[in-house]
Amino acid sequence: MSQQQPIKLYYWPTPNGHKITIMLEESRLPYEVEPVNITRGHQFDPEFLKIAPNNKMPAIIDPEGPGGEPLSLFESGAILIYLAEKSGRFIPEEPAAYYSMLQWLMFQMGGLGPMAGQAHHFCNYAPETIDYAITRYTSEVYRLYNVMDRRLGESEYLAGEYSIADMASWPWVRPHERQGQDLAEFPNLKRWFETIGERPAVQRALEVLAEARDQGKSGTGFDEKAREILFGDQQYRQQ
Ligand SMILES: N[C@@H](CCC(=O)N[C@@H](CS)C(=O)NCC(=O)O)C(=O)O
């Protein structure tokens, strides 16, 4: 039998990127990483835009997609569903459980991710302190953490068993301090966060390009050029 060809993962070590390395490590699907340095504008490379027209990572190319044909995908939620269906893991089979998982995945994609992203921005990156925006987004993240905390008081994981819904949310709870949150206020969420953080696959996933992430933390990777590329006006966004 022929060896499975690796999935190509277009990646940078951010919460949305971590979702996919966690799933690839958990499912043991073979993969290779193609770094997309978003602090240097690589998300605007024409070749990358062909597979990720929204100029954001993560994205994948599976050389052995449906029908044995190559498949490219962007949007982390779609990628997680694809990988779960391909591997047959971390996605419930029974319909009610499947839709429960899907609703928590959508909760992350449409709520937690975007709101926590804005909280990161206004708490950490905005060139001026805008109290209204900081309060608006940290309050919304606080509310969303409470929603998860209540759910995790009745269920071990967001959708019953450990699934891609947890893999989508966990990387966004990881930088909770940068979102102005204290996990001690959310005991069920804290239990869930610590349990998942101990999984060997999650720890391996966080090591992928970790040096790039750590540079960002120490400030050396997030300089004026990165600020201009990610948060500047349109000059870098012309395609
Ligand atoms: N909804 C997208 C969001 C992806 C996203 O926001 N990626 C960011 C890094 S976390 C990015 O690539 N930003 C580059 C840019 O905005 O130019 C997903 O879930 O895949």
Brief descriptors of the model:
single chain; 239 residues; alpha+beta; Glutaredoxin; Glutathione S-transferase Yfyf (Class Pi), Chain A, domain 2; four-stranded mixed β-sheet; 10 helices; globular; binds glutathione
Give a short overview.
The chain is α+β, with helices and mostly antiparallel strands and 239 residues long. It has 10 helices and 4 strands; from the N terminus they run E-H-E-H-E-E-H-H-H-H-H-H-H-H.
Count every beta strand, where a strand is a DSSP E run of 2 or more residues. Answer: 4
Largest sheet report: 4 strands, mixed
Q: How would you describe the oligomerization state of the chains in this entry?
A: single chain
Query: What does the average pLDDT come to?
Result: 94
**N/C terminus separation:** 43 Å
Return Rg in Å. 18 Å
Query: Briefly, what CATH class of the largest domain?
Result: Mainly Alpha
Strand order of the largest sheet: 2-1-3-4
Q: SS-based structural class?
A: alpha+beta
The ligands bound in this entry are: glutathione
In the residues, how many domains can be counted? 2
Any idea what the shape is? globular
Q: What fraction of the residues are assigned to beta strands by DSSP? A: 5-15%
Q: Helix and strand string, N-terminal first?
A: EHEHEEHHHHHHHH
Q: Number of helical runs?
A: 10
